Amino acid sequence: MSTALVFREDAYARACDATVLEARANVLVLDRTVFYPLGGGQPGDTGRIGGLRVVDTRKGEGETVLHIVEPDAPLPAPGTRVRAEIDWPRRYRLMRLHTALHLLGAVVGAPVTGGRIAEDKAHLDFDIEMERLAKDAIEERLNALVRADYPTRTRWISDAELDARPELVRTMSVAPPRGAGRVRLVEIPGVDLQACGGTHVARTGEIGAVAVTRIRSEGRHNRRVTIALID
Ligand SMILES: [Zn+2]
Predict the structure, then answer these.
(1) Which residues place a Cβ less than 5 A from the ion ligand 1?
(2) Which residue in 13, 28, 211, 226 is a FRET match for 93, CA 20 to 30 A apart?
(3) Class of CATH domain 91-229
């Protein structure tokens, strides 16, 4: 059983038609989906499948995606054709913030120890001395990269190629999914290149103005830089 991941080829797909493969408790598995499952620091999508509210999305066994619906909802039987539609305004904000984190990593240029994206803000943790993090300078360089409107591109490499180029795994704690034999690279040409399975905007200009809202120490080797979208 596997789910075709529409978001992986087209992050802008808001809806798709699909067939129910499995329905149990409050979980639906489809043959294809636009719903991104929690992973890589990016939350799982919410939305609707048929008349059901999807409250979260997780990875399942193998290449499956688990759509978690409200408890006690009557589920469609396997074989039923359904329409799957994500909460697009929420996802689009996550895409903008996710792409902004790629820029933040490039601006700070220190090893990344972790990261997380929420609908209203996102952060990366860096292994760096506090004195090297100047809020105003980071914000200015971040917004310059946004205004320069760089494209984002994806391509695939094998697991073996990734092993040979460990620098492409920027964040160990949010490493991209492996095991399918190939890993997706996300490139912002001249700015950033890393393995990443998340959803990104097509051009950095779509991020819009960004603020660095906080820089604080999170333990001896962790400096957390938090950003937010201004609109
Ligand atoms: Zn990414």
Answers:
(1) 196, 198
(2) 28
(3) alpha beta
Domain spanning 4-86 has what CATH number? Answer: 2.40.30.130
C-alpha of residue 193 to centroid of ligand 1, in Å: 10
For residue 194, the CA-to-ligand 1 centroid distance in Å is 8
Distance (angstroms) between ligand 1 centre and the Cα of 99 equals 6
Phi and psi based region of residue 172 (left: phi greater than 0; alpha: psi -120 to 50; beta: remaining): alpha
111 alpha carbon to ligand 1 midpoint, in Å? 16
Among 186, 42, 178, residue whose Cα is nearest residue 102: 186
Q: Where are the domains of the chain?
A: 4-86, 91-229
pLDDT (mean) for 50-68 = 95
pLDDT of 83 > 60? The answer is yes
Distance 74 CA to ligand 1 centre (A): 35
Ligand 1 centroid to Cα of residue 75, in Å, is 33
Q: Which two tokens stand for residue 41?
A: 């620091």
For the segment 48-61, the average pLDDT, to the nearest whole number, is 96
Alpha-carbon 29 to chain mean position: 20
Read off the pTM: 0.94
Ligand 1 centroid – CA 129 distance (Å):
25
Cα(79) to centroid(ligand 1), Å:
34
